[in-house]
What does this fold into?
Amino acid sequence: MKTAREYIDSMKRMRFELYMFGEQVTTHVDNPIIRPAMNCMAATYELAEDSKFPQYQELMTATSHLTGKKINRFCHIHQSVEDLVNKSKMGRVLGAYTGSCFQRCVGMDALNALSMVTYDIDGKYGTGYNSRFLKFLRYVQDEDLVCDGAMTDAKGDRGRRPSEQADPDQYLHVVEEKPNGIVVRGNKMHQTGAVNSHEIICMPTRAMLEEDKDYAIVFALPSDSQGIIYIYGRQPCDTRKIESPNMDVGNVLYGGQECMVVFDDVFVPWERVFMYKEYDFAGDLVEKFASYHRQSYACKSGMGDVLIGASQLIAEYQGTSKASHIRDKIIDMIQLNETMMSCSLACAYEGHREGSGTYFVDVLRANVSKLNVARFPYDIARLAQDIAGGAIATMPSEKDLKHPRIGKYVAKYLQGVERIPVENRIRMLRLIENLTMGLGAACYLAESMHGAGSPMAQRIMIARQTDVERMKGSAKRLCGIDP
Ligand code: SF4
Ligand code: FE
It folds into this structure.
């Protein structure tokens, strides 16, 4: 297993074609906008280090079913219900440790979904995808790599299928078949942790029909392969990270990362292709990946832990913590946060073994879990802003606090409870600002809404997974109607 330092060093060797703010970025590891997100990914290695965090060994590591070696859980294929439960708990621990999206779940969820779907395609068509995939998986486990699980296409006109688009590149597709591989063109949007990844795994974004079969492809490539172009996504207040000093950033250690990823005629060798035109399995892969990823949103309960802690502290710093309505609001936040976590755990505990041997979450509860996540962080954020007060939106900058003439006024009039240094109050308010409307809100709110699929996708799955006929039968029986 790699240490956090070895992970950062491995990123220095990647040669991404990366653009940000209209300029090409060549030394991305030391870029002040990117580095906090990379540090966040590095935390997925750091917490797995036995010498630093022995208490997290059970959550952060697992035994490979391929080699019997100890590996990082993010590279593991779930072999039991206990593995699924530990995955949910790991997400919460890392969410609380970083206060951010730590980005590595997408790869874990893609690997697990592919371990099942490649097996199922082989079962129907006699293809050899599963052994190809397992060879790739072994490489990922042995090298302890980060994979970006890339699903979301640009989609163009949402009312049209992939093959009906005016621009055929709106969904990633194959444009040429060669003796030794294929050439692909298109785009993947909203790619979490893209330039913190060693490998990119591309999957279809929706169910496909026969006429869409050129779009029904799955492959993995080194993330810095020729022809892959990364365009860094903006986040609220992102340039605060290049101001110095850094109190105004709120979360001074970590952050998230999203990129637009362009595939400009990229070559993929056959040994890295794990689905090729088996369009009837595209929908199944989407459902499996999405269900795993909806479970992964236990990360937001970890971020919720940070926001609840910050809200309690700011109430103490401002002298309001004993007011009964503040105590009620904190309890409401805890209830919402624990409800999210409970659903993620429930879909793990109700998991089952699939034909390939991989353990899969309970689909209904995974979708209920993510639908909660699409709403509850907004409610928690509203309560946090209520407790914090208006200063989160009006405070002068750190440079004003340190200014020789006006600094004394900023300090005097932002002072709260006497024994608490004014700087602590400002830092805590900035953290709440970060999580509820700044950099961290990109992960805590917008990503909670749309990550792992927008709420409507979960509603469709919940409707499909629920046996309403059984419920109608219960109701009829109890009021004396013959069911
Ligand atoms: Fe993982 Fe959560 Fe980030 Fe998704 S939003 S990659 S589940 S930390
Ligand atoms: Fe996400």
The chain has two domains: 4-293, 294-467.
